[in-house]
Amino acid sequence: MTAAQILALGHARDVAALTARVAQLRTANVLRSVGLDLALPDIVDAVRERARVTVHFHPDRFLPAGGTVVCSLAEEGWYRNQFETGITNGGIPVKTAAPRDREERELFADAYLRAGVRPGDRPKYGALDFVGAPEGATPEFGPCHLRLRPLVLPRCTFSLADGHRTRDTGTWHLMDSLVAGLLEAARGESVPGGDRLPGEDVRRLLGMLLDTGGLNGTAGGRNSAEAPSAQGTGGTGGIGGILPPSGDLSPVRVDAQVHGEILLSRDVDRLVADPSYRGTAVEEELAQIRDRYELDLHWHRGFALPFEKLQALCGESLMSVLARQVHREFADGAPCLTAAIIGRATAAIHRDPLRWADWGSPTHSLSLLGQLWRVVVRHGLLPVP
Q1: Predicted confidence (pLDDT) per residue in 342-356, tens digit
Q2: 154, 215, 342, 376: which could form a disulfide with 305 (CB 3.0–4.6 Å)?
Q3: Which of 250, 259, 257, 260 is nearest to 103 (CA)?
Q4: Can you give the pTM of this predicted structure?
C-alpha cells in the first residue's frame, strides 16, 4: 500500500474509534424503542461473518482510450478507478475531480489530495453486500460485478450513503457507527399510520443481518442460496446493500472504498453477470476473464422490464420517450428492456453521437441512459426460476 492509502485508512480508523461509544448508545436506543434485547457486538459480528464487497460495472461501456470496460478487465487483469479510466461507472466521461475530491476529503482528510498522489492510488468504489445477494449490493451501478475475497476487507473503509442523514463511517474492525446508522434509518421508515408497524423495518433489517428470517414473526430476508421476498423488485438502495426492507424508500446502502489494487487473480473470487449478455461478445470476454484469472463465472437472475410496464410507470415522461426510442432501435423485437439492450444504445452514442443530438451532448445522453437502467433495476428484477 502507498503512503496515501495508509494515511487514509488510519484516519478512518481514528474517526471510527472516536464515534464507537456514541454508536453503542444510539444502537441501544433504537433497540429499546422497538422492544428488542440484542447487543451491538453480536450484530457487528454477524455482519462481519457474512458481508462481502461487490464492485459493479457496465461491461459494454466504452473507455476514452478505446475498447470496452470488459475488454480492459480481460487484458489488464485489474479493476481501475474513475481517475484511471476517465469515465464514471455509467460510462460518462469524468469532467472534473471536484465532487470526488470533496467526498474523499470528508472521509480521509487530505490523504489523497497531497502532491505526488497518483490516480491509481485513489480508492476503488463498491458496496457492502450483507446477505449474499446474487445481483450484488448495488446493481443500479452496473449489471455485472466482482465479488471480492475476504482478504481485501481489512483494507476497506465504509460509509453510510443515505442522502438524508449525517454520514456514518467505519472500517472492517470498527463498524459500530455504521450499524447504528442503518438501524436509525430503518426505524425512521417505520412510522405510525403507515402500512407497517413501528419498528417493523428494524426487525426485518436485523432478521437479514442475523440471518434469522425476521424477528418476532416478522418476515425476513435471504441468504446466498435463496431469493429476496421484498416485492420482487430492486429497491433504490440496492439489492444486497441494506435497504429498509419494505422497498420503496430513499437509498440506504453502505458504500465501500477499497484502498490499494484490485487484482482479478488475487482479490476476486467470483465474476457475476447479467444473463442478457449470454450469446453476445460480452459473454466471450467474460469467459476470457474466467479462464485467464481462474474465477468462477456466475449468472444472476437478471433484470428485464417489459416495455408496456415501463410506459405505464412513466407515462409520457422523458424516460418513457427515451425508452421508446431505445426499444424501437435496439431491442430487435424483444418485449423487455435489459442491460444488453441499453448497452447497445450506449455503444451507438459512442459510434455516432450526432444520431443522438436531439437528446443533447453525448455526456447528457449517457446520463439519461444511466437513469433508464436504474428504472429497469428498480422495477425489473426477474423472479426466481
Answers
A1: 999 999 988 888 888
A2: 376
A3: 257
A4: 0.85
